[in-house]
Each structure stands twice: as C-alpha cells, then as structure tokens.
Structure prediction request, 199 residues.
Amino acid sequence: MKKSLAIFLESLDLFSTPKLRLEQYPTPSSLAAEIAVTASIIDSDQDVFLDLGCGTGILSVAMGLMGFQVVGVDVDRDALKIAVKNSRKADVDVDFVQQDVRYLMLKKRAGIVMNPPFGIKKRHADRIFLKKAFETGNVIYSIHSAGSEDFVRKMAEFNGFQVTHVWKYRMPLRKTYHFHQKQYKLIPVEVFRMEMVLK
Ligand code: SAH
Prediction:
C-alpha cells in the first residue's frame, strides 16, 4: 500500500519555478506516503484534514487517496494551480484555498498535515505555522528540520498539545535552486504527530 502510494505520488508535478522567499521545497513521495498511511491507521476517525502551506499538493493528494476529505491552503497561486492539476489526476476529494495561513479561521477544529517553511530564509516561519496548527487542529502531523524537537515539544505543551510520535527521517531533496551543488542531498528531518490533551 505504502509503496504503491509512493509510486503514484512520484508521478505528480512539482513547483515549476520554486520561490525561495516562500521556502518551497516539496515533500518526497516516500515521506508523504508514510504520513498518509500512518494517519489512515491512527486517525481513521478524523474526517477532514487541512494541509497548511500545501504547495503543489503532494500531502493533500496522499491524504485524499487514503480517504480523508482535504483542504489545501497556500499563499502562492502558481503552486495551487499545480496542486489542482495533481488532485484531478489522482481523482481525490481535495479543495484548495489561496490564503496566508496566518489569517485562516475555522469554526471547527480539523486534522492538520503540514510541511511548513523551515524558517531558514524567513526566521520563525515554522512558528507561524505551528501556532496556526495549535489554534485550528486537534491532531497534527508536521515536518521540521532536525534539531527542532525541544522547540516543538515546548510549543506543543504550551498550547495544550502533546507529542505522541517522532520519526527521524532523511529527506532526499532534489536540486531545486541554482545554488544547490548536488543533484540530491539528504536533509535530516523530524516528523511529529501531536494531539490535543483532553482536559
Ligand atoms: N507542503 C508542500 C510544500 C512545502 S514548501 C509539500 O509538502 O510539498 C512550504 C509551502 O508553504 C510553500 O508552498 C509556500 O508557498 C507555503 N507558504 C509559505 N508561507 C506561507 C504562508 N504564510 N501562508 C500560506 N502558505 C505559505
């Protein structure tokens, strides 16, 4: 299942001209498949997932293929056009909204999946996404650069969430920007699953 999902995701289109300012790096297919399959097992009771900073929609499509209803949100219209095309190709129930995640408001909490900017180009960009995830989510899957665990745990605790799973993963990153020297580079990342602490 995971493997065939990853193989399909591999066929989706990526950012045509990635915008450095927005830290547009796609999630690799294998990791998107890993997260979606895990969520389909642990969080099968969840109906809706929001994909914050969905980019070209690989996580949205993966979650959609696992049977979730998904809303992908991104500020970049060019990325969203590709995401719509990808979701049509996969024939999944995904809607896309052009919106800065900071201004997103929901009346009901939903599941969150996200590979946010790591905050390398724009400091604290990841913090903005986490803040919104804690504000709108009940369960959160989030990808961060290695070394974020303390920070994520503290922020989760402060916002009434607990980290239930941490996966360490090496993300093969394809050459995306001209200053990348190699075709592929392995970036260590940490994937967190967090859930609201019920009082
Ligand atoms: N989730 C996608 C893309 C990850 S790159 C994937 O996994 O492949 C991070 C994405 O966040 C980019 O698409 C970028 O356009 C988007 N982004 C950055 N800042 C944003 C903001 N403030 N509001 C909404 N989207 C934002």
Q: What stands out?
A: The radius of gyration is 15 Å. The chain has one domain: 2-196.
